[in-house]
Amino acid sequence: MSMLCAISGTVPEHPTVSKKSGHVFERSLITKYVSETGKCPITGIELTEDDLLPVATNKTIKPRSSAATSIPGMLGTFHDEWDALMLEHHTLRQNLHTVRQELSHALYQHDAACRVIARLIRERDEARAALTTLREDMRAEMEAAAEARKRAGEEEEAAGGPAKRSKQEALGQDVIAVLDQTNAALSSGRRKRAVPEGTASVEQLGSYTLTGSFPLHKTTQPGITALALHPTQTNLLASCGADATVQLFDLAAQRQLPALTGHSKRVTAAVWGEDSLLLTASNDKTVRFWKHSAAGDAEEGAFGSWECAAVGEEHAGEVRGLALHPSRKYAVSVSDDASWAWWDLNNAACLKQCSGAAAAYTCTGFHPDGLLLVTGTADAKAQIWEMRQQKAVTGFEAGGGSPLSGVSFSENGYHVAAVAADGVSVWDLRKMKCIKELRPYDEPACRAVAFDASSQFLAVGGADLRVYAPKQDWALVKAFPDLPKKGLLSLAWGPKAGSILVGGGDHNLRKGLLSLAWGPKASSILVGGGDHNLRVFGPKESGDAEMQE
Questions:
Q1: How many alpha carbons fall within 13 Å on the CB side of residue 267?
Q2: Alpha carbons 459 and 470: distance in angstroms, whole number
Q3: Tens of pLDDT along 484-520?
Q4: Left if phi > 0, otherwise alpha if psi is -120 to 50, otherwise beta: which for 524?
Q5: Per-residue pLDDT at 93
Q6: 36 exposed, middle or buried (CB, 10 Å; 0-12, 13-18, 19+)?
Q7: 394: Cβ–Cβ under 8 A, 6 or more apart, which residues?
Q8: What pLDDT sits at residue 495?
Q9: Residues with Cβ < 8 Å from 26, sequence gap 6 or more?
Q10: Which neighbouring-strand residues pair with 460?
Q11: Cα 545 to the chain's mean position, in Å?
Q12: Does the keyword field hold Zinc-finger (predicted)?
């Protein structure tokens, strides 16, 4: 029995057998095939040269190929070679067809991508052209409106009437310079600023109770809607009431100063400007400028004589909130007429009024650096404005559909808290993402929110007063339940987080001592509640000592 090569069909000169399949091959043919494919040419299984074993043969008689012994045999061999060549040629043509199909698909995808890019570029150019046209139209309209106002002012002045200062279409370069200077001064040291020495710990907050109560507003129209503590004269407090008055209160002497009367409806907000100038807002659609006259005081520092220096009547709706710029030279008011106004406090003049919002404005607040302004609306949305260009650059929705009643920036510069009836949401301005939602009450009762000046505490007012610690995963630090049933309406922190002022649904202002350094040396918490009293929270000994002073 002779051995034939499984590839060539001839007697191998150097026979080799596969350990895996058992087939016999010519060594030169099988090693070449295995090196190219790595498989057995007969069975198709994986095969290496290590799987090939040489077969010992008797080389004395050299086998002859039967095909090479005759012309018909040689013709048969040539025919087999021709068939193999044609088969290989057919395989190459199939592979070429497949590659052409893949190339055609890639070219189609490239063409589609080019068409999409061309369409996007065309739409971008059209949008830019439309924006340019819109800007030109708006500029023409503003110039026409300014010219009309100028002519109206000239006609009114010619007729003998008072010439009213016209508002600017944009804030002047002098105002922008003040904004930039204030921002540079405040933002440069913000990251390196340490917590003021003497700031009380969280543990020191939990031991305080009600130690005093002082009536401020009329009992017939209870409600303290807003509180403003003087930034330098920290004993001077302005309490805004539903009785249309602003009651000044001396915290050191624990006595009432003369009430500021002039508004005809509920006073909604108050801020202190430079040189003891007080700006108040009311539902009577006006903003009033109050100035202190030292000559009329019975004694130095009594703050007993005040007069209304000017009345701003720019808004067509109820004025719902005020925000003081960190420079204390300017303030912003927001109104139900869906507009906000920029006020020059020194000249008692409205420099710009921006209107056209989709819903009424309900609250406002400035970023600690003074370049950003946040406004809250009745449809639970907050807008962030860039004040150098007076444009809304971003915004977010908070409140679950309820009107926003207050906003507060953290002193760290990138957290802002917004309060609605159902709770408080805290947003990170770097990512425009809500990082925390506080729901302190089962029923919708939240009305006010305020960060302290050290960014270590957040106060929330509603059915009671609650203080949270942002740096401790927003844990509840203390709840103050000793408040009237009507709850709280407003919050305000004192300088250096030395005090927290809370105005309630009554006519009372409450004050509590916190060894928390929320005011100077963590002196007090002031709370205005549902009656007409000022309540003092703190240790009994400390509270008595303060009252005696």
A1: 30
A2: 10
A3: 666 677 777 666 555 667 766 665 666 433 323 334 4
A4: beta
A5: 95
A6: exposed
A7: 383, 384, 432
A8: 62
A9: 5, 7, 8, 10, 12, 13, 14, 15, 16
A10: 449, 466
A11: 43
A12: yes
Instruction: Quote the DSSP letter at residue 425.
Output: E
CA distance 506 to 517: 27
Q: Specify whether the backbone of 500 is left (phi greater than 0), alpha (psi in -120 to 50) or beta.
A: beta
How far, in Å, CA of 507 to CA of 256, rounded? 13
pLDDT at 516: 31
Which residues does residue 349 pair with via DSSP β-bridges, in sequence order?
A: 344
Task: Give the residues across from 377 on adjacent strands.
Answer: 361
Can you give the pLDDT at residue 540? 54
Closest CA to 321 of 378, 281, 266: 281
Low-confidence ranges of the chain (pLDDT < 70): 1-2, 59-68, 152-153, 155-169, 191-192, 198-201, 204-212, 294-304, 399, 482-487, 493-500, 503-549
User: What's the confidence (pLDDT) of residue 334?
Assistant: 95
DSSP-based three-state secondary structure for 111 = helix
| Two tokens, residue 28 | 């030169």
Q: Which residues pair with 279 in a beta bridge?
A: 271, 289
pLDDT of residue 201: 67
Say what the pLDDT of residue 293 is: 73
Could you tell me which of 369, 360, 440, 374 has the C-alpha nearest to residue 408?
A: 374
Q: Any residues with CB less than 8 A from the CB of 287 and at least 6 apart, and which? A: 279, 280, 281, 311, 312, 314, 315, 319, 322, 333, 341, 343
Residue 339: which of 320, 324, 323, 326 has the closest Cα?
320
Alpha-carbon gap, residue 511 to 546, rounded angstroms:
11
| H or E element, residue 407 | strand 406-409
Distance CA 511, CA 92 (A): 93
CA distances from residue 454 to 74, 212, 357, 377 in whole angstroms, order as listed: 102, 27, 33, 27
**Residues 42-52 pLDDT 10s:** 998 999 999 99
Q: How far apart are CA 129 and CA 139, in angstroms?
A: 15
Q: What is the dihedral of CA 63, 66, 69, 75, to 10 degrees?
A: -140
Report how far residue 366's alpha carbon sits from residue 271's, in angstroms, rounded to the nearest whole number: 12
SS3 513: coil
- Give the separation between CA 144 and CA 111, rounded to whole angstroms: 49
The partner residues of 339 in beta bridges, in order of sequence, read 355
Buried b (16+ CB within 10 A) or exposed e, 436-445: bebebbeeeb
